[in-house]
Design goal:
Elements: H1 15-28, E1 37-38, H2 41-48, H3 52-64, E2 68-71, E3 75-78, H4 88-91, E4 128-129, H5 142-154, H6 170-184, E5 193-196, H7 199-210, E6 216-221, E7 223-224, H8 225-233, E8 237-244, E9 247-248, E10 260-263, H9 277-290, E11 293-297, E12 322-327, E13 339-342, H10 348-359, H11 364-375, H12 378-404, E14 409-411, E15 418-422, H13 430-439, E16 442-443, E17 452-453, E18 464-468, H14 474-503
Parallel strand pairs: 4-16, 6-8, 6-10, 10-11, 11-12
Antiparallel strand pairs: 1-3, 2-3, 5-13, 7-17, 8-9, 12-13, 14-15, 15-18
Helix pairs in contact: 1-3, 2-3, 5-11, 6-11, 7-8, 7-10, 12-14
The structure holds pyridoxal-5'-phosphate.
């Protein structure tokens, strides 16, 4: 059967993306059913008179995201893994904003708030610190940034002396809306975007809009401290839901109403796994059924090392259930304090008022400079360059782990700025290694340290080390892992000697 696609060669959106998006919509809307056959890439390219490579790449992307599957010498079919019950046709319901309840004032007897760790407190003594999520300090585009900021400053007129739209600079919001379509599969416009001071500020904005003492905040476990501790601070009831190799276990989502669920679907923090398509759909269906909202933190999605970037969960959300958080802390630097939130339409007015109440908007000069950097194409070139750099550093880390340990399992290395290493059986638990490593000047982290928090500790969860690689040179990475191996073999030989002495 020919596919009823409408392809436009003159569109700025590539033919590959058009095919991907249209086939995906047909699947999600139930117009193509699980198990149904698709035309071959050759037939499709002949139908539209386009290159075979274009259709093949679109199919590759659909397969990578779990929409279709190819059976050798048989053909290509819509994936049987997509549960029909959670497709939009089955669950389409209008959204309504979450209810909020009253919150009492803080008493002096209340326990102090917890906040996320931003750096390793021992870092001055470290030879190599595998702290997670730090950009390479030498890669910030200083020269071009200086030129752009200087030009904007001289032409600023009243921009630095007057209040501006608290939602953020229109040019920057437009540049973001344009970028998230091809890179994250999110169709949005400047109106739906609010510029914030990084993800953390976005989380605060959403928490102020949605949380009150006693509301439910679902988090992944393990989870990013900055989110979990913030929700805790709002008096929310934290419901941790465990993560396995396919991401959040949606079967364990609570039976509640008006909750928020904070997730990191592209590269789970800190485990690094990707949320499967089946579970993405389940999570969206849960949000619709329970009148809840999903907070998607897409903190490091710019760094996917092979193939097209995976689409964001927000790109699948036809029911207005996903609030998307993006940040420039990883692609440029955390010191800029710039990020953005993309809201579903029904939350926009509330979000704009809350942003005004919180801080009247972000600094104009940095927003204007970033908008110019994005519009000039400089940002995209910068991201491509550092992606390559991080790829080499990731490879150096994989090579060093293989050389010195040659065992265990690597998780989440296809993307991002860190990976998780499931330890080989002959190594001690991760928490013990972390302590030994620090003594030797190497910073490594577990699922419950660094900036992570683990709500369900078990012997198994102490078998993972979390290693960031983006801010270390290849030399530092090799030295750090060699030092770690040295420490662990010293410990192992000490244990052997003790065991031999006991046996005598
Ligand atoms: C998962 C995750 N989300 C958000 C952030 C914070 O980002 P921002 O600097 O934009 O507040 C981090 C920082 O490491 C992170 O790891």
């Amino acid at each position: 059967m020919p596919l009823p696609l409408k392809l436009h060669a003159a569109s700025p959106i590539s033919l590959q993306t058009q095919i991907f998006e249209q086939v995906r919509s047909m699947i999600l809307e139930g117009r193509l059913r699980p198990g149904e056959a698709l035309p071959s890439t050759r037939t499709l390219s002949e139908q539209f008179g386009i290159a075979r490579n274009t259709t093949a790449l679109a199919y590759d992307r659909l397969a990578a995201e779990g929409y279709i599957e190819t059976r050798r010498s048989v053909g290509t079919f819509i994936s049987m893994q997509i549960p029909e019950g959670v497709l939009y046709t089955a669950t389409h319901r209008p959204a309504s904003p979450a209810r909020s309840t009253k919150r009492s004032a803080v008493k002096s007897s209340d326990p102090p708030a917890r906040s996320q760790a931003l750096v390793n407190p021992n870092r001055k003594r470290l030879v190599a610190d595998f702290w997670v999520g730090r950009p390479d300090p030498d890669s910030f585009p200083r020269k071009i940034w200086a030129q752009l900021i200087h030009r904007r400053l001289l032409g600023s007129g009243s921009a630095l002396t007057e209040y501006r739209d608290p939602s953020g600079l229109l040019e920057l919001r437009e540049a973001i809306a344009e970028r998230v379509r091809p890179t994250r599969n999110i169709v949005t416009s400047a109106d739906e975007i609010i510029i914030v001071g990084g993800c953390q500020d976005g989380l605060n904005l959403v928490s102020r809009m949605m949380l009150a003492a006693g509301s439910t905040a679902v988090v992944e476990t393990p989870c990013y401290q900055g989110a979990a501790f913030l929700f805790e601070n709002f008096g929310a009831k934290i419901v941790p839901v465990p993560v396995d190799e396919r991401g959040l276990i949606c079967g364990r989502l609570p039976d509640v109403r008006n909750a928020i669920a904070y997730v990191t679907p592209s590269h789970q923090y800190p485990l690094g796994v990707t949320l499967s398509l089946e579970r993405r759909l389940e999570l969206l269906a849960w949000a619709a059924e329970t009148d809840s909202y999903i907070l998607e933190d897409d903190y490091d999605s710019d760094f996917r090392f092979h193939g097209a970037p995976l689409a964001a969960l927000k790109g699948l959300d036809l029911m207005g259930r996903v609030i998307y958080l993006g940040t420039f802390s990883k692609s440029l630097g955390a010191g800029l304090r710039l990020g953005y939130v993309i809201f579903p339409t029904e939350l926009l007015e509330r979000a704009r008022h809350m942003k005004t109440l919180m801080n009247n908007g972000q600094p104009w000069l940095e927003q204007a400079t970033l908008a110019d950097f994005m519009e000039s194409g400089g940002y995209e070139r910068h991201v491509r360059r550092i992606r390559k750099l991080y790829y080499s550093r990731r490879n150096a880390l994989l090579a060093a782990l293989d050389k010195h340990f040659g065992g265990g399992e690597i998780i989440g290395a296809e993307a991002g700025m860190h990976l998780a290493w499931r330890l080989p059986h002959d190594l001690p638990p991760a928490s013990e290694i972390e302590k030994l490593a620090i003594e030797a000047g190497v910073g490594v982290y577990t699922l419950a340290t660094g900036a992570a928090v683990n709500f369900e500790t078990s012997a198994d969860s102490d078998r993972y080390l979390v290693l960031g690689f983006s801010s270390l040179t290849e030399r530092e990475i090799s030295k750090g892992i060699a030092r770690l191996a040295e420490v662990l073999s010293v410990k192992a030989s000490g244990q052997r000697r003790a065991a031999q002495a006991l046996a005598r």
